[in-house]
Amino acid sequence: MRNNIFLTTILSVIIAVSCNVEEEHMPNIDDQKMVIHANIGSASTRTYIAADGRTVYWNEGDALGVYTEEGSKNAVFTAETAENAYNGDFFGSLIDETPKYAYHPYCEQGGDYTAVKLYLPVEQSAESISACNFMGSNSFIKAGTNDYAMEFRSVLSIIEVKIDASDTPLASSSLSSVTVKALPLNEGEETPKVTGEFTMDLSDIS
To answer: 160: phi > 0 → left, psi -120 to 50 → alpha, else beta; which?
Structure first.
């Protein structure tokens, strides 16, 4: 039995996963509808993990929250792309505005861009990676009329747990879940928060 389990944690310092920054320039698709092009090449920064446990894609229905120079807050942009796509085109209803900040996944209660309200569930699975793959952007490049390319950074980490039960009595068993427990870095300190509610400052994405 060999199983790979992927979990997401707020404490990105626990396991170092590099933040990937990529951009894509593409022609405008519709001058009357703002489009944001997302081409993120690393598996750690898209939203869907395939059956092999490693390949990750954008999927139709993925959504961004967008803030503009003109003051629009948390406008929703939805991916209109084929299933399991490497490149994502996100469309919204804003016209003649300039994107300033964006994040994924969209939350209706996102709030101000300096403290976007998000939630990381305690129980996670590979199928729910879209709801756990938090990314932010504060860099947009104009590619045409109502047409922008973006740079995203992952703000969390994905923990890969490898369990190899070969040549053990458990070799024929199936693994259904793994429990990960956070511990204080030093005795007497509070246990670090790794799930639950948190905020993301889009003006300071490191």
So the answer is: beta
Strand 147-154 vs strand 35-39: parallel, antiparallel, or unpaired?
Answer: parallel
The set of residues, in sequence order, having a beta carbon less than 8 Å from that of 181 and lying 6+ positions away, is none
Q: How confident is the model at residue 101 (pLDDT cuts 50, 70, 90)?
A: very high
Burial class (CB in 10 A: 0-12, 13-18, 19+), 134: buried
56/51 Cα distance (integer angstroms): 10
Residues with Cβ < 8 Å from 155, sequence gap 6 or more? 12, 19, 134, 135, 136, 200, 205
167 or 3: which leads in pLDDT: 167
Evaluate whether 92 touches 32 at the Cβ level (below 8 Å): no
Look-up of token digits 């947009």: 140
C-alpha torsion sign, points 108, 116, 47, 162: negative
Q: Report pTM.
A: 0.72
Q: How confident is the model at residue 113 (pLDDT cuts 50, 70, 90)?
A: very high
Q: Could you report the per-residue pLDDT of 39-58, keeping only the tens digit for each? A: 554 444 445 555 555 555 67
Which residues does 67 contact at the CB level (< 8 Å), separation at least 6? 73, 74, 75, 99, 100, 101, 102, 113, 202
